[in-house]
Write a structure and sequence with these properties.
about 425 residues; mainly alpha; Growth Hormone, Chain: A
Amino acid sequence: MNLEALGLHRRELRAWAMYDWALSGLQAVITTAVFPIYFVSIAGAGLAGSAATQQLARANTVAMLLVAAVSPVLGAVADFSAAKKRFLAIATMIGALATMAMYGIEHGDLTLAFWLYVIALLGGSGCTVFYEALLPHISRGDEMDRVSTAGYALGYLGGGLLLLFNLAWILKPAMFGLPDTTLPTRLAFVSVGVWWIVFAVPLFRHVPEPPRAIEADETPRANPLLAAFTRIGETLRELRGYKQAFLMLGAFLVYNDGISTIIKMATAYGTEIGIDRSSLITAVVMVQFVGVPFAFLFGWLAGRLGAKRSILIGLVIYALISVLAYNMKTATHFFVLAGLVGMVQGGTQALSRSLFASMIPPHKSGEFFGFYSIFEKFAGIFGPLLFDVAITMTGSSRNAILSVIAFFVVGGGMLLAVNVDEGRRQAKARSV
């Protein structure tokens, strides 16, 4: 398979996709595998019961609400000022420095851990808005799906490699001349920040800043913040003009809630039914590497069937995962499910990104991806809530995991109603 088939055939495309690699350490090490354990067992040491876990959940909520409040505004400012890369650089430094500062978290430093985690997530989420807003500017319509899936594939590979390195010196510190203390884990946090900054360099060197596009009712010297709020207000009033893009957002909110719930609850569910921690960690790493070829495969599949149909295939497999998880009993079953998740997770999310990007006007990409970020962050509220309610009503986590199918059925039904060609025509008609 050549570079064009992979969506990596131009230098700016490869540089853009490498930013997924750069940012992947935050997802793999900080939000998924290492920091949550450290937060509960070290920073929250001494707290009774599930108090530390509750604080971690609260930190996620605070970060999500802050991101939801500022993402569309910052995206619109970046659009008006032609400053997507500048804002991306600022968000990168904020997030990376926050993860590096986690080196200073010791036993009982719960407040420090709480706020550094919030700042790191703010930086990462801000990066995502500006990074994804560059996609419709660097790729043509016929290659957008491949480029988006290439980014996810490189993100899986980069995150998996960094996580492997980190786990090696955390679990076997003597092999690296490190003491068996908190030092190896704190060095892992530093490595995330360094990794983030170093691998972000290609994007800043080779991806051009999109040209400034001023709308008919704007002046170049207008206050960027006032212009941003004006643009957001206009967009909210003109939702009917972008009906298909916002229907796509609604579908994404629903089915991504199911995806997010499976990601968040998988290891907890596995622990509850008796699967050992080493198997759970191995499965998390496995998802990273299985996701690489299958993300590329979904890009190829989208070229044959279209992004919408390819996403629907992924949602059918997610529904199957819920059914299989209901019957899961052994570590082998968990590995099979992890493999299935790895097959569809990156592809469905990458194609959701590119499908949305194809139905928005490029000159408003920052603003629209600000809204996309809100929907992406809020996708994850109702799934865990349904999980909680299902356990309360039935007394069984198995019934709860089965209930997640509802998100894939409803979200898939909404996606079926999206007229992609009409959405693209609407975006083209309103492009400057």
